Amino acid sequence: MVKYDVTDEAIINASPKVVYKSVIDEMDGKTSWWMPHRSLELREGDSYGQVGALLDSTVRSRFTTQFTTKTVEVKANEMIRVEYVEGALRGEGLWKFPSQKGKTKISYRWQTKPAGWFLRIIGPFLPVRKSHSKVMKAGFENLNNFLSEKSKK
Q1: What CATH number does residue 143 fall under?
Q2: What is the DSSP annotation of 72-133?
Q3: What global pTM score does this model have?
Q4: How many domains does the chain have?
């Protein structure tokens, strides 16, 4: 069976506290800096940053993928661990927000496998890892630009 294990990272020109809050705000629907690559809707819970929250995601890359994550562990300004519980994938994701010389080295480790028969069959023939990284890197770039513009105001 196909399994994916990909870590994407970037340097964001803001503190871990600011970056962490910006990721939470995006997941909670308060901002939309990840569009058009990824749309998000908090289905259950008050915030993505709270254990038990369910988040529905639609990722638009070479193909559209939908899935739901559940927040399972949170350390404010440091990390968020989620489980992929519904949709196209099962597994887990881990956000980290370590400080690096006054900036943040954001990372997301994605460890999943296809949940449905269709993706299990065609998954080995698709550039899933590359598509995931493309969406994450676009999000990180958009986040950096969003925070840069926000700091100018």
Answers
A1: 3.30.530.20
A2: EEEETTTEEEEEEEEESEEEEEEEE--EETTEEEEEEEEEEEE-SHHHHHHGGGS-HHHHHH
A3: 0.92
A4: 1
The amino acid sitting at 99 is S
Res. 32: pLDDT tops 70: yes
Q: For residue 140, count other CB atoms closer than 10 A to its CB.
A: 20
- Residue 143 pLDDT class (50, 70, 90 cuts): very high
Separation of alpha carbons 131 and 127, rounded Å: 6
pLDDT at 153: 66
Closest CA to 110 of 126, 90, 85, 124: 90
Using CA atoms, how far residue 105 sits from 5, 47, 75, 92, 96, in Å, is 19, 23, 16, 20, 8
